[in-house]
Design a protein that fits this description.
The chain is of the alpha/beta class. The protein has 2 domains: 147 residues, HAD superfamily/HAD-like (Rossmann fold, 3-Layer(aba) Sandwich), CATH 3.40.50; 56 residues, no CATH class. It contains 10 helices and 9 strands. Helix 1 packs across helix 3, helix 3 runs parallel beside helix 5 and helix 4 runs parallel beside helix 10. It is globular, with a radius of gyration of 19 Å. The chain starts with 10 loop residues before the first strand and ends in a 9-residue tail after the last helix. 41% of the residues are buried.
Length: 237
């Protein structure tokens, strides 16, 4: 049964999701941080290498995607928890020195989303770094979820489910903006519509990219995509 109203305003689709003229209507946007908004990847690599060099004399580590565990295995006497603490200090110091900032177009992307509804941030990184990065960026979020807030991080759906709960919006009414494979899987598993701005590794993973409804090469193009989507609180012609 078509429950979309003739005047184009929101109606329910029978399962509680608002729709406008037969299209799913969004209410909120949830952003990833590193690689999506923050140009932090190169700095993380330098910081992790510096920690390895400090403990072993060489910056080279074999990465499995779990850098704290990789560092702990590479550096005798260094626990994963201590590795996280050292790397976070290095990243916070880099922020204080202006070592990195937002990706081009990221601020405008968040502003466009905020004009349409509440925005949240989901990051797998520890809270100390995430909050420092947000403060340095000048961006504002209605809710922030960090790696310290959940027992199961990305690619589990828990971080995005928590963000939706903190926003007070059903996950199915949220747009998630992500660059990584684990983040796309996490948001998709949470039931969110995904806008992918794939990093180089993700761009080669066609299985992951199929989980995203929308794709953009960078934040500038993502802004155009986002502003074309139907949001409940955006003025609608």
């Amino acid at each position: 049964m078509d429950l979309a109203r003739r005047d184009g305003t929101a109606a329910l689709d029978g399962i509680g999701s608002p729709r406008r003229s037969g299209r799913l209507v969004l209410e909120a946007t949830v952003f990833d941080l590193g690689g999506t908004l923050a140009d932090s990847a190169a700095t993380w690599a330098r910081v992790v290498g510096a920690v390895a060099a400090r403990h072993t004399g060489t910056p080279a580590i074999r990465s499995t995607g779990h850098w704290a565990d990789d560092l702990a295995r590479r550096c005798p006497g260094l626990t994963p928890e201590a590795a996280v603490a050292e790397c976070v200090e290095g990243m916070v110091d880099a922020l204080a020195r202006g070592g990195f900032g937002l990706l081009p177009g990221a601020a405008d992307l968040v502003a466009a989303a905020a004009a349409a509804g509440p925005v949240a941030l989901v990051s797998a990184s520890p809270a100390r770094y995430v909050l420092a990065a947000v403060a340095a960026s000048g961006l504002r979020f209605a809710a922030i979820v960090t790696g310290d807030d959940v027992a199961r991080g990305k690619p589990a759906p828990d971080p995005y489910l928590l963000a939706a709960r903190r926003l007070g919006v059903a996950p199915g009414r949220c747009l998630a903006v992500e660059d990584s494979g684990s983040g796309i899987r996490s948001a998709h598993a949470a039931g969110m519509t995904v806008l992918a701005i794939p990093n180089p590794a993700t761009a080669r993973d066609h299985e992951v990219l199929r989980l995203a409804t929308h794709h953009a090469a960078d934040a500038l193009i993502a802004t155009k995509t986002l502003t074309s989507l139907p949001y409940l609180h955006r003025p609608w012609a």
